[in-house]
Amino acid sequence: MIELLNNLLFDYTIRTVALGAATLGLVSGALGTFAVLRRQSLLGDAMSHAALPGVVIAFMLTGSKAPLVLIVGAALAGWLGTLCLINIVRYTRIKEDSALGLILSVFFGLGLMLLTFLQRSPDARQAGLDNFLFGQAATLLERDVVTMAIVGGLALLVLALLWKEFKLLSFDRNYGSSLGFPMQVLDVLLMSLFVIAIVIGLQAVGVILMSAMLVAPAAAARQWTDRLSIMVLLAAFFGAVSGVAGALISSLGRNLSTGPVVVLCISAIVLVSLLLAPNRGLIWTWIRRVRNRRRLRLKPVLRDLYALTNQHDNPYYPHHIDALRTTTGGGGVRWTLTVLEELGWVQRINQNHWALTPDGLSEAKRLTTGDVMRET
Amino acid sequence: MTQLQIEIQLIGIVTAVACALPGVFLVLRQVAMMSDAISHTVLLGIVIAFFIAGSLESPLLIVGAAMMGVVTISLVEMLVNTRLVKQDAAIGLVFPALFSVAVILISRYAGNVHLDVDTVLMGELAFAAFDRWQGWGLDLPRSLWLMSVVLLLNGLLIGLFYKELKLATFDTGLAAALGFSSVLIHYGLMTVVSVTAVAAFEAVGSILVVALMIGPPAAAYLLTDRLSHMLGLSGVLAATGAVGGYWMARWLDANIAGSMAVMVGLIFMVSFLLAPRRGLLALVWRRRRQRWEFAQTALTIHLLNHEGKPEAARENRVTHLQEHLRWKKDFAGQVIRRAEAGALVVRKNGYLVLTENGRLLANKAMTH
Q1: Which fold is adopted by the domain B3-213?
Q2: Are the beta carbons of B282 and B304 closer than 8 angstroms?
Q3: Do A116 and B255 count as a contact with CB atoms less than 8 A apart?
Q4: Which residue has the higher pLDDT, A91 or B57?
Q5: How many angstroms separate the CA of residue A202 from the nearest CA in chain B?
Q6: Last residue of one domain, picked from the residues A277, A298, A320
């Protein structure tokens, strides 16, 4: 552990990789929130696949592997892919899922075709372009990370400046139009930000797994909060944490690509969030359901005991448990009575006889008035 | 063409058709992205089955991959059922995670066998013909045998359950009311997709599987309204894409699977632009025509309105239309010319008079 921390601080490669992964996690987490909320989670998948031919063509045209050149190429191709997607859905009866799959596979196929076309040419400078398939975080240089940080920072700045508008776009687009905001423009702008988030991660995580970095942090963050601002911050945090964790873990083993490890880290965060998050988490819901079921049994038993005592002058008249069993029906009456006793609403007179307490009497009266009954 | 070239193209054609047939139902049932998810996760099934069987040729690999396909669907449905994430996010969460596990397992423990991730993604169709199997006096590539069996199976299953699939695809409610289990059909289809994907991945790679499953049916969907025609057309388009892609790859000396995907994309683009009724050009042309038709109808209604009334002398003058209908001069002139050509109006010393046809049109438009 100490050694790991030491590496993080002083080993150039590991520090660079961790910083790069953290940057991309942060940016894609924050922006991915909007993709998930707008049910465009798979758009990232299509965009990142579509970016591949852009990378290759950018290299073919310029002969340079400078990060900014490749990022611009990737962004243009990703953007073009999105444009095709929108138009296919708008002008034909083909639904979004088919359009996504089509764009994704055809653009990716084009990328592979061009890549292999380049590889078979004698020019050796193209070596390393295929790192974009799965990402090769170990090849990240400081200048790559700086480029990522600047481009990502700009994207986040746009997000912050147009926060209100994007919020409106995500939750109530029609209201936004009625207020006179140019929703179409905002839509395209937000998609362009997605493209940026994706392309800065390509070198580290690769086109195939990049979409997970857009979806997973946001899906995890969604479980913990209902507020957009907190969700964005949380998603950025989760993304950054899984980036650093993934970079460190992959540095431990030989032959461990960073991309898949980062994806597994963020998937683990998602799993924990799904299970443990308060209110929405699965375990929490399960506990609530059990508690509700119990509470549902308490009420009928108390109500029936009250109904039985109503036939006597004395409101604290003890009744045999079998009487309650016939009126309430079902099992667990004795167990329910002991719970009611713990609550101080009934008392045990002898082995099989139970009576209301003053507290229980008022509670039962409250229960039998209509409103409260309906409340449950 | 040499025998090798013919065989590679045959593998391509058989694979393409085998993928396109179940793809039709993926496109129609709007679950196309499941093919993307499955084509990635079958890799994990293959890896696990490989660890158990110890060989890449074991039939266990197909079983493992098919099971992983079903596991993928179940995981996605499970996630959706928790209602904590939406379906698109669920797909986006499940397959990268499973795929990552597979990639890590391969790079850690299977680095020295012929199971590298690049092959899974891109396939190596060029080498597929070297691995041969003999049977029934025929000496053919293993992939060709395998894909032929899968094609036959897919065709057989679709033929057998044609009515059920059709019903469940186009009218889920009625299918459920008649007692067909939509869950069973869904899982059945997904199993077919998984088996096809795993059989095809070796030859053509997982991405081409997605392209072949979605591209040809999507293109065919714009060309026909009949399910049976769509199935046939998808098969033809897929085969065309396979052959075209092969020759493009040879011409560029590039990856065959990638070229086939590009060819499928081109075929879709042609269909998108030129499809007789649903293509972009047809759409634009139809809108233009409707615009003129509407303008002509408006003209006849306007004329009919004032026909035989005192103001007709003023209203039905040719020059007045620009004012009254707020048409630009050129536009008004064109509308009148078209209406004259269509024998809806005639010009009589500067005035427009409706013909019998024009009057009929105006009346019809107004009573609708």
Answers
A1: ABC transporter involved in vitamin B12 uptake, BtuC (1.10.3470)
A2: no
A3: yes
A4: A91
A5: 15
A6: A277
